[in-house]
Design goal:
243 residues; Structural Genomics Hypothetical 15.5 Kd Protein In mrcA-pckA Intergenic Region, Chain A; Alpha-Beta Plaits; 9-stranded mixed sheet; 6 helices; 30% strand; PsdUridine_synth_cat_dom_sf; rRNA pseudouridine synthase activity; S4_RNA-bd_sf; EC 5.4.99.-; Pseudouridine synthase
Length: 243
C-alpha cells in the first residue's frame, strides 16, 4: 500500500513528519535515484528511498483489514493443495499479511487480516475473551432446553466443556425443519460452533461469522474487504491491553 513519503520517513525514524517534509523540500531525499521535492509523493516498500545519500530501511508498515471470506476459501496464507486462500484477495499489497485465527473452509464471514503479529497473537489468546458471533442454519428447531445447554456450556471435542455462550433462535422453518441460530463465543477451538450445536442435537448445515469483537460486515458482500480505520485499530489494541 502506497503511503506519503514523509510518513514513511517518520515511521523509519528519520525525523518527525514535519521535519521530514523540510528534508524533502530541501532536495535531500531521493526516490529510486531521483531527487523528490514534492510533498505529495507516495511510495511503497518496493521503492528505494535515500536521505542525504543513505538508503532508508523502511519499517514494515502495519496494515489491518476485514475480509468477508466466501465459503470454499482456506484461512491461510498459502495452501499446498492449490486451493484459494484468503491472501489471494490482497495481491496488490506490498506487505505480507495473514489471517488472525482460522475460519473453516466451508464457513463464510468476517476474517481479520494483518501483518501485526503482536496484536494477532493477543487477539487469539483465550485470556482476552474476544467475542465472536456466528449465525448457523441448523437441522431441527432448538427448544429452550437446548438453548440453555448452549448458554451454560456443553461437552465437545474429547470432553472439553465450552464456556458460557450467548445463544438465541433468530428464525425457524417448520416445513423444512430447520432454524437459524446465533451464538456468541470467545473460544476458538477446532469446529467449535459446529461441535456445540451437534452436541445438542442440531447439526450445522451452513455457518457464517458475523462479528469479531466490535467489528462487523456492514457494507461488505462476499469476497469484499476494507481497511480498518485508525480508531478501529486503536480499539482493537485497547481490547487486548491488560489493566
Amino acid at each position: 500500500m502506497a503511503e506519503r513519503l514523509q510518513k514513511v520517513m517518520a515511521n523509519a525514524g528519520v525525523a518527525s513528519r514535519r521535519a521530514s517534509e523540510k528534508l524533502i523540500s530541501a532536495g535531500r531525499v531521493r526516490v529510486n535515484g531521483k531527487v523528490v521535492t514534492e510533498l505529495g509523493v507516495k511510495v511503497t516498500g518496493n521503492d528505494a528511498v535515500e536521505v542525504d545519500g543513505r538508503l532508508l530501511e523502511q519499517k514494515d508498515t502495519k496494515v489491518y483489514f476485514i475480509l468477508y471470506k466466501p465459503r470454499g476459501v482456506i484461512s491461510a496464507a498459502k495452501d499446498d493443495k492449490g486451493r484459494k486462500v484468503v491472501t489471494d484477495f490482497f495481491t496488490d499489497l506490498p506487505q505480507r499479511i495473514y489471517p488472525v485465527g482460522r475460519l473453516d473452509y466451508d464457513t463464510s464471514g468476517l476474517v481479520l487480516m494483518t501483518n501485526d503479529g503482536d496484536l494477532a497473537n493477543k487477539l487469539m489468546h483465550p485470556s482476552y475473551h474476544v467475542n465472536k458471533t456466528y449465525v448457523a442454519k441448523v437441522k431441527g428447531i432448538p427448544d429452550s432446553k437446548a438453548l440453555e445447554q448452549l448458554r451454560h456450556g456443553v461437552k465437545i471435542d474429547s470432553g472439553h466443556k465450552s464456556s458460557p455462550t450467548k445463544a438465541k433462535v433468530i428464525s425457524i422453518d417448520k416445513k423444512k425443519d430447520t432454524a437459524v441460530v446465533s451464538l456468541t463465543i470467545h473460544e476458538g477451538r477446532y469446529h467449535q460452533v459446529k461441535n456445540m450445536l451437534q452436541a445438542v442435537g442440531h447439526p450445522v448445515k451452513k455457518l457464517k461469522r458475523e462479528t469479531y469483537g466490535f467489528l462487523n460486515l456492514t457494507g461488505l458482500t462476499s469476497g469484499d474487504f476494507r481497511e480498518l480505520t485508525n480508531v478501529e485499530v486503536a480499539e482493537l489494541k485497547k481490547m487486548v491491553t491488560k489493566k
